[in-house]
Design goal:
The complex is a heterodimer of chains A (245) and B (235). Chain A is of the alpha+beta class and 245 residues long. Among the domains of chain A are: 85 residues, Thrombin, subunit H (Beta Barrel), CATH 2.40.10.10; 77 residues, Beta Barrel (Thrombin, subunit H), CATH 2.40.10. Chain A has a six-stranded antiparallel β-barrel with strand order 1-2-3-6-5-4. In chain A, a hairpin with a 5-residue loop joins strand 10 and strand 11. Chain A is elongated, with a radius of gyration of 35 Å. In chain B, helix 2 runs antiparallel to helix 3. Chain B contains three helices and two strands, in the order αββαα. The N and C termini of chain B lie far apart (169 Å). Chain B has a two-stranded antiparallel sheet. By secondary structure, chain B is mainly alpha-helical. Classes of the chains: A alpha+beta (245), B mainly alpha (235). Chains A and B meet through helix 1, strand 1 and strand 4 of A and helix 2 of B.
Chain lengths: 245, 235
């Protein structure tokens, strides 16, 4: 081997080592990052009002309506709930023989009623209003099953707006013979004045309408299936007779 | 050079053609590395690798380079290595400085963010406490709204009950007044009729009968008014 060839080999070796060394050398640091704080982070996006209603009352309370039935020689109270902006549902016996129906909302506002219609085959009635009701719920697609949790929102004894809860115990024939078909039985406590109260499921949908109770504190409910059938039949509701004729 | 004295003797089978010269003491061999191959000896060709050789079993080493050229190459190699080491050292120094500055800046930024985080946490705790207070106030306000709505409803019920009571009392009063008026007319009529009957000869019997009938109607009206009053009272 000549010295020239050895030197070239050594130079080549140095070059290879230099190239390999550059590969293992750490890179130069980049500029100081200025965007350490992300502009947005994953999470629930806030809405304009969140889960709150305008005044903190939930929909179940805001849809409830207190009904005062002023008869010719009588005075009674009942409950109801909004079906849409100007329609509410209650019981037939709540609006029967009235000379005047006076409605008030959860916050004490008076709502003028224009007309009441009652169903012949179920203890149900429809009341039309002049003013818009604060809120209205959604009707459930099917009747609840035994064991399902229920919530009743109404005005027992004509007093304060009250929310009670219970469970569906089963179905039975109407003990008052006012409803066609079966009605539901629950253990949710109700009182006179609760008639017409909305019965809600855990998702806040209407699953029935309170219309009676018995001595064992069981409440009877017109199921939402019957309510849907009545609402679908335009001839099911006729104008409610008043005491003044 | 030696000659086997027994080579020509019988029994000594080594022919003259296989004669091998032995080096004499002090002789300089023609090639220093020349070795006759020995059985079992390592292969010299494998040992020397690609070194040039003249013939089989004959290896030739290159002549050593001259000392000045070898030194120059070594110096160049060392110089190159030194320059490379200096370059690497410089690069590493600048890199280290860069990372030190980056770490310092990042730490400063992190401290600023940490301070901001601590401030935000404090504000959040305050906001949560304030929110709890607002929630309590909202619950109180809701309860008050519900109570006021109930009070208003009860007042409305009382108002309607009072109105119905007033209507009832008005109806009873009207009925009682009607009864009293009818009774008064009845009594007066009957008194007049009694007076007429005391002097019946002075009056036309037909007129007396007509008057008696009229008094009977007044009393019947009083009876009807009384029945209406009783009906109102029974409501």
């Amino acid at each position: 081997m000549t010295p020239v060839r050895g030197g070239r080999l050594a130079a080549a070796a140095v070059a290879v080592l230099a190239a390999a060394g550059c590969g293992i050398l750490p890179p130069q640091p980049g500029p100081v990052p200025t965007d350490l704080v992300p502009s947005s982070v994953p999470g629930p996006a806030p809405t304009a009002t969140g889960n709150l209603s305008p005044d903190g009352f939930d929909v179940a309370q805001r849809m409830a309506v207190r009904i005062r039935n002023v008869g010719c020689n009588s005075l009674s109270t009942g409950s109801g709930f909004a079906l849409d902006a100007t329609t509410l549902i209650t019981n037939r016996h709540v609006v029967a023989d009235s000379a005047d129906l006076q409605l008030s909302t959860y916050d004490g506002r008076d709502i003028a009623a224009t007309a009441a219609s009652t169903a012949a085959l179920a203890d149900l009635a429809i009341v039309r209003t002049v003013d818009e009701l604060p809120a209205f719920p959604e009707l459930a697609e099917a009747d609840p099953q035994p064991g399902d949790a229920v919530t009743v929102v109404g005005y027992p004894q004509g007093g304060q707006l009250t929310v009670t809860s219970g469970r569906v115990m089963g179905a039975t024939t109407d003990p008052l013979n006012e409803n066609l078909g079966e009605v539901l039985v629950t253990d949710a406590p109700v009182e006179p004045g609760s008639s017409g109260s909305a019965v809600l499921d855990t998702q806040g949908r209407v699953i029935g309408v309170v219309y009676a109770k018995n001595a064992d504190d069981m409440s009877f409910i017109v199921p939402v299936g019957t309510l849907r059938e009545m609402l679908a039949d335009e001839s099911a509701f006729t104008p409610s007779p008043t005491c003044s004729g | 050079m030696t000659i086997d004295p027994h080579a020509t003797e019988p029994g000594h089978g080594t022919p003259l053609s296989s004669w091998t010269p032995a080096p004499a003491a002090g002789d300089t061999p023609l090639y220093a590395d020349f070795r006759p191959p020995q059985p079992g000896a390592p292969d010299r060709k494998a040992e020397v690798g690609a070194r040039p050789y003249v013939a089989d079993d004959m290896v030739i080493d290159p002549p050593p380079p001259s000392r000045p050229r070898r030194r120059a190459w070594a110096l160049a190699l060392v110089s190159t290595a030194l320059v490379a080491a200096l370059a690497v050292a410089g690069y590493l120094w600048t890199t280290t400085e860069g990372y030190r500055e980056l770490a310092a800046s990042t730490e400063e930024e992190a401290r600023a963010i940490g301070t901001e985080l601590a401030t935000t946490r404090t504000e959040l705790e305050g906001a949560i406490a304030e929110l709890d207070g607002v929630r309590a106030q909202l619950a109180t306000a809701q309860a008050r709204i519900t109570a006021l709505a109930d009070e208003k409803a009860q007042i409305g019920d009382d108002r309607e009950a009072q109105r119905q009571l007033v209507d009832y009392q008005q109806r009873v009063s009207v009925a009682a007044g009607t009864v009293a008026s009818a009774l008064d007319s009845c009594i007066k009529g009957q008194g007049q009729l009694i007076a007429y009957l005391k002097d019946a000869a002075a009056y036309d019997p037909a007129d007396l009968a007509t008057f008696e009938s009229q008094v009977g109607g007044l009393c019947a009206s009083a009876t009807d008014a009384n029945e209406s009053l009783q009906d109102e009272l029974s409501k």
